[in-house]
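Hi there,

I know you've been waiting on this one. I reran it after we fixed the sequence typo, so this is the corrected version. Both the input and the resulting structure follow.
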Amino acid sequence: MQSILIADDNPDITDILSVYVKKEGYEPIIAKNGIEAESIYEEKKPAAILLDVMMPLKDGYEVCRNIRKKSSVPIILITARGEDYDKIMGLDIGADDYIVKPFSPSEVMARLRAVLRRFNATEVSENTDTILKLKNMVVNLEEYSFSVDGKKIPLTKKEIETMWTLASNPNKVFTRDNLLDSLWGYDYFGDSRTVDSHIKRLRSKIDTVEHPDWAIKTIWGVGYKFEVTE
């Protein structure tokens, strides 16, 4: 049986989420602090992680960063802090979704099912087509790496997926809603500002290297496209 790691120092939350995780057909594994969460992840390799942000020893942001450096396992951050900055920060460091307390356990399970569906779909595609080469850039979904002229640019999981989505469809315009649906899924409860902030951070990273033959262009009032110069 596959497992779900539930990392939270509040036993009331871990108890109720454990009940719902079992109903989904997974074995719940509990971590009470950030260090324990990383240790259990390394040992058990769960199918997904429900990760509280405000935990003792290491907070959820640090745990997410550390795990994301070596794995694309689905991660949902759970926190009492609902400001846009906190949500965007969580997504930008590699989380797949973000839930604010108080929450409905049914909603958490719906989000969990959504990220697992997207992750499993990506796993299937990785077995058939994992490397995209265009001009001087390479996007590798198997390694979750991105390079320009052979130089690796450190991108988050979501940024890699964004580059793949855009560059796989050169000169095609994606609306913000298109990108929300493609990258965060139909079950994501977000808005277009998430996409704008995400693209802004992605551009700041890829603009550290020369790429005169391609760029992520803003189509004002519509969305974005990966523009290639012939």
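Quick highlight: Confidence is low (pLDDT under 50) at residues 124-128.

Best,
R. S.
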